[in-house]
Amino acid sequence: MPVIPGLNEGQVLNAGSPVPIASPEEARMQGNAVARLGGAATELGDTLNQLARAESNRRLRVDKELASQSAEQTILGEYAGTVAAAPIEGDRTGAKQIEGFYQRSAVKIEEQAALIEDPDVRAAFTIEARKNMNEYAKDLFAKELVKRSKQTDTLNKKAISGFGQMARHNPKDTELLMQKAELYIEDNPDIPASAKAEQQLAARKQVLTDSVNGLVDRRNYEGAISLVEKFGGGVYTSEEKDKRRNDITTARFQDVNRELGGLYKMEEVFTKNRKKKASDAMSMHTESLKQAGTDPFARAPIIKAIENDPLLSADKKSALKGEKSFSKGQDDLYDSTIMKDVIRTGDYQSASEKIFDDRGSRVSPQRASEMVTRLNSLKEKMMNDPNFTSVVKTGEKYIRAQANQEALAPMSNAERKTYMDKVERTVEDYYKQVTTNPKVDAKALATGLVRSNLDTHPDIPRQSVGELAQTRDRIVQETLAKKQQGRLTREEEREATKKLQGIHKRMLEMDKGAD
Amino acid sequence: MPVPLALMAAGTAIQIFGQYSANYSQAQAEIQNAQFYKEQADFAWQSSIRQANIASREYEARKGAQISAFAKGGVDMSGSAASVIADTLSARSEELMAIERKGQIEFKLARSRGRQAEGQAALLQDPIYNATQAGATALTNYAAYKKG
After folding, report:
1. In this complex, do A31 and B61 lie within 8 Å of one another by their Cβ atoms?
2. Which of A108, A490, B54, B107 has its CA at a distance of 20 to 30 angstroms from the CA of residue B39?
3. A9, A26, A46: best to mutate for the B interface, most B CBs within 10 A
4. Residue A359 in 3-state DSSP?
């Protein structure tokens, strides 16, 4: 209870700390939102502006590049035209052209720059164009040097090649042309002194090689080899010299082989054609005779045509005419037997009578007439030369002695038989020739027949035509292989050539024999 | 006029308007606050006077009661009785001084905030301030446009 009633006046009023009633930040919110809207719009505009500026810059750059390229093309086009037209003699290194290019480029750049309105673009173009021109010029300078150098080389090579061509056509002038080529290089101011010796050697080599090749082309292999021997010493290394020699020998062998092959082929074709023609002629005459029948008037011209036909042998003519057929072998055997008897007995009278009796029955009439003629001259010889008979007999013995054990041992039975037949044919041939021409040296004849028929090529195996062809190919291959390996001596080379010729000859003989 | 430039110009205008609008709204809020701070200061002043009066009257009543009590008890008003009365008077004086001091501080605080709010409002409404701000915005956007 208050001390004095009524004095209690209630709660004390307290103002406290002052507080704001409005929030300035909140008050700003609306305005800030509007400001942010404006800011966003500005940013959008800025972005668009940047895009537009980028596009504009790009176009500007493209325009600038195009302008620059166009100017470069104009300048370089003019330069290329000038360089192409410039004579090489006046500016072998291209230095003058490059200098001119620099000067013209500077003028051209100024001209092109003057066409550009925008000063920024103009300045940029000028700087860039000069830079590009410099780069281009440096590149061109290097290229031009190489180009000019190549042109000079080409001209030199052409000149040396000219000497080589001349040497190819005139190998006897090889030495002179080699000297000329050397002089050309010596006097050529475009060839550095340090390179002259090397190029002179190369030139000598080229001239010599061309000359050698020219001789090889003409199949003058000996000449080519002697040229290599004569001048190759100072031009080729020993390896090159060997190689050249080997190449020439190889070419020679290939040539021989090719030629032999060609000859054989030609002979073969010729023989076939001849057989075919003979066969056709036989058919034609047979048909004509058949049509003529037995009428002697109709047959007469046909018989005459048969007799005059060079394609037909006497046997075939006889056969066609209806006469008894006599083969060449039969006639030869008869001829040989009679003539041997004559030589052995000296009784040519009996022989003459026998021939008369056998005419048309054991020997063909033609051969019989021929034998009688020979018998007369034989008679004369035997009367005049008492040694004739013994000499002829010795020749026969010599021929028969070829069929000795040593020759027959390596042969098969079939080969042996063929060889023995050949010996017999040689004897027959011998007698025929001796009796046909009794004045002949019988000993020399026998030796010659043996050499050509029986013992001409003792080192060539006695084989069939096909086997001989294989042997020939094998010899060629082996010889070429040796040649390529550098192991072929001159002696071997000559021997191989001789063998090949022997094989070829034997093949022709066998072919004729088979005919 | 290119679209980007037009867009940027419009955006800048809106931005400036927004900034001005924000300034205006904030200024109004600041003015309201200043007004209220002023009222709060007045209230603090009047409240302290009232509280001092109440305290004075209470001490007067207490002193009267003490004197009456001493008189009723036949106590001489000298010596310790006089000392008690003197203490009461001294306490009254201290209490009144404290109340007055507190009132002054509250008054000054409210007044000070009121003046700050008034100053802020005046600044936000100042045409030069707004023009400067708008100019800065416009210049910044123009620079961005040019920079592209």
Report:
1. no
2. B54
3. A46
4. strand
> Which long-range CB contacts under 8 A does A421-424 form with residues at least 24 apart?
A422/A453, A422/A454, A423/A399, A423/A454
Q: Given an 8 Å threshold on Cβ–Cβ distance, is B47 in contact with A18? A: no
Distance from CA of B29 to the nearest CA of A (A): 5
What CA–CA distances, in Å, run from A381 to A374, A377, A387, A392?
11, 6, 10, 12
What residues of chain A, 45 to 84, have a C-beta less than 8 Å from chain B? 45-53
Contact criterion met (CB below 8 Å) for A507 and A469: yes
B43 has pLDDT over 60: yes
CB contact under 8 A, B106 and A15: yes
Place A460 in a pLDDT band, splitting at 50, 70 and 90.
low
**CA torsion, ordered B81, B84, B89, B93, to nearest 10 deg:** 160
Choose among A481, A422, A87, A435: nearest CA to A249: A481
Q: How many CB atoms lie within 10 A of CB A400?
A: 14
Answer yes or no: do A20 and B117 touch at CB < 8 A.
yes
Taking CB atoms and an 8 Å limit, are B106 and A16 in contact across chains? yes
- Which residues of chain B make contact with A11, given a CB cutoff of 8 A? none
Q: Is A33 at the interface with chain B, CB within 8 A?
A: yes
Q: How far apart are CA A207 and CA A178, in angstroms?
A: 6
Query: In angstroms, rounded to a whole number, what is the distance separating the alpha carbons of residues A109 and A126?
Result: 7
Element at A109 (helix H, strand E): helix A95-114
| Cα of B6 vs its chain's centroid, Å | 47
Handedness of CA A484, A485, A489, A495 (dihedral sign): negative
Tell me the pLDDT tens digit for each residue of A354-411: 888 888 788 888 888 888 888 888 888 888 888 888 888 888 888 888 877 766 766 6
DSSP B115-146: HHHHHHHHHHT-HHHHHHHHHHHHHHHHHHHH
Interface of A with B in 440-479 (CB under 8 A): none
| ipTM of predicted complex | 0.72
Condensed to tens digits (0 to 9), the pLDDT of residues A84-125 reads 555 555 565 666 767 777 777 788 788 878 877 777 777 887
**Burial of A389: CB neighbours in 10 Å, binned 0-12, 13-18, 19+:** middle
